[in-house]
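Appendix B: complex inputs.
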Amino acid sequence: MRRSWVNPAEEARGGGGGAPAGTGSDLHLDLSGGGSLRARLMRALREAVHSGRLAPGTRLPPYRTLAADLGIARNTVADAYAELVEEGWLAARQGSGTRVAERAVPLEPDGPRAPARPAPRRTVHDLLPSSPDASAFPRTAWLGAARRALAAAPQDAFGVGDPRGRIELRRTLTEYLARARGVRTAPDRVVVCSGFAHALELLAGVLTGPVAVESYGLPFHREVLARAGRETVPLTVDGRGARVGELAATGARAVLLTPAHQFPTGGPLHPERRAAVVDWARACGGVVIEDDYDGEFRYDRQPVGAVQGLDPERTVYIGSVSKSLSPALRTGWMVLPGRLVDEVLEAKGPREMWSGVTDQLTLAEFIASGGYDRHLRRMRQVYRRRRDLLAARLAAEAPHVRVSGVAAGLHAVLELPPGTEEGALRAARRAGLALEGLRPYLHPDSAMAPRDGLVLGYGTPPEHAFAAALDALCLALPGPPEPDGF
Amino acid sequence: MRRSWVNPAEEARGGGGGAPAGTGSDLHLDLSGGGSLRARLMRALREAVHSGRLAPGTRLPPYRTLAADLGIARNTVADAYAELVEEGWLAARQGSGTRVAERAVPLEPDGPRAPARPAPRRTVHDLLPSSPDASAFPRTAWLGAARRALAAAPQDAFGVGDPRGRIELRRTLTEYLARARGVRTAPDRVVVCSGFAHALELLAGVLTGPVAVESYGLPFHREVLARAGRETVPLTVDGRGARVGELAATGARAVLLTPAHQFPTGGPLHPERRAAVVDWARACGGVVIEDDYDGEFRYDRQPVGAVQGLDPERTVYIGSVSKSLSPALRTGWMVLPGRLVDEVLEAKGPREMWSGVTDQLTLAEFIASGGYDRHLRRMRQVYRRRRDLLAARLAAEAPHVRVSGVAAGLHAVLELPPGTEEGALRAARRAGLALEGLRPYLHPDSAMAPRDGLVLGYGTPPEHAFAAALDALCLALPGPPEPDGF
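Resulting structure:
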């Protein structure tokens, strides 16, 4: 039977400009039908519980409030509540009002349920790359920044948002990125976005032609470009980063690089190549897209400054708090050449549709008050200790496994003997380790020979579990290759 | 001249596994070149200020910290700071550390700046539809909810997010929407999104064929569908909402409706049409997309329940906090038929890329603690008072202008004499009123004759400015049509 939640008699009254105004109700009850008002109210409440609309434990409005909303006497509602408590539909507890009784189990929804997704294998230790330690999120400091930011925010902050992002954040980022990353820009060239993929999606709609990428890189980024109709062309990667000398032959006018820390294989882009890629961009009118995904985490010396500083007119610099604070905040930024600002905003749309204002304002205050620097400083020490622990354990227990790419960031590459990646991944999964192989990172069109390895994130496990994660990892690694002639 | 922010000598050292580890620095300084360490540090700091990388007012790290980071003596840094203060580059203030001097004005960036956008005409009163009063955002209550939510959140909340959204929010919404809007669902059918347009974008990728829409509707929603390659077919709209009887002839298998309050022209979808549209969807395997954009704001009687409650397997229900709290929070939700959940999640991607965790958790707590109900109750009274004021003023000063669609929501339609919309908009703009005409809302393919009118949002102005906004509006309205034969 179909059924309307509105009283049809009342609905039929039409525009009702002269009807007495209620104070409005958030508990939707149909009081139509026969019997006394109390009986009709009880029937409506029972129906709401029975159908599952009012779940067990739900708090009902105070009887005074409901009475005012329905325009009926308080006693009527109080009596109906009391009787339903008697009947076991509702429960009344001192100090917490009247609630739907816990044993009034609602019906299962009548339609087919969504099919249960296959349960993932139980992960004991998450060693996937790219996530910081979620347990280290600075809740108290963040909340303090939120309090100050909300108190200081102008009223228009809660109106429709500027798609550039809040000016407070763009100003603070301009200063912070200059100081910490050598970025040269101005607030009107910064556009806030929800993270790197969002930035790449926006750029893909603005740039034309194929995009050169590093042979080793995040498959997801190649997918974002492909979905936007952009072909990707792989550049060879070696110990000095991407071989940008190959760019001229690709015909691409845009190149996506990870200059601070080649992802996932290694180190920073060599100074000569930094110069060369900027020269290339100047010569052909191209653009360097700089993915500065973990530029803040460098352990053995000063961080390598951004390529952007070499030529702000030829570089799109992209960063986020996904590694430095949390991927759950969904807050990132693009630093654009002047000529691309309007095009990117055009792609983003006339209103802010993505980035929430509270996180933007809170991040601005968190950076400006020094909380961000303090958090980064602390996490750098935590991650460096983990990296040292990882390197020491592997040197002792698996000396045939070479560890690379550990001068910075939250991940390492473990180079494995040829043909052992698949088996190592299986062993790791059996041991409850979530872990990724190196092979999926290789661009399918790359001329580079595939190498076996593991891309191991050491940022994610909480502090107390890290040693146990290393134990499990060492057990899952393949043994040394058999000596020749055995 | 090109220039690197890293010390090339240091960079060339390579992997540097054995280098002494610094505690990391967020102030990027190049200490290469000749002279004493102090001279080199001073040169690097001057250069950073001169180039604008260190903006006036920027606080420098304490000298102890910078010394530790650079691995040099504290005295060296302290002396360098002191000399630069002497030189006027830096300023030292008791209690607030050392900062870049305000008069050390940085150079303009050397590249061309983004072209200045044309300055919008100064808006004195914003009467655009669709935004609540930004000054009424409940900052204190929201912050309290954020504090409780962050304290209670499990640690994995700050890891990579589930694209369904936080379970705390999906559970709370399931209960709230049942209670307040007659929605019948379960948490595993709720998907969090960044607002209505995001939901529509996701659906457009899942549904096939043309989408029927109301003849009067938001042009932006038609654009979202068009960008996703979906043709839109208009249904006639009358006093009972969209004429859903026309659906059968359209060939569409999806229809986008605003059943609680036809946007922008009028009232709720009539009970017979609610039944009919569900019958249509059942008969042809179609889907009703229910845009419940302001369902909480109904003034003269109980809110009209959602169509979704009639058939959860045939309806996609979409809501957000954009009208109820703030469009700047970018938080909305879809309630899906079971069979569409996996497809929508597939379209959304394997990780949460859009909705930030703090706002999701805060909203869940805000609703569960009763703060949301209290806010809605208060705002309903505010907006009803404004509506009454608007109706009274127009009845007194412009009796020839019919006001419609005011039983609910944050906007009204002012029906104008034929041919006067254009002139009224011009007059309004001259008076500093931001205002929209009715004509852009009409679907270009609609068979309906265009009507002249204004779509007037009365939610946006702050309380103290509302009376003045009405004064300005009344002055901008066209006079009564001239009597015949004059």
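The mean pLDDT of chain A is 87.
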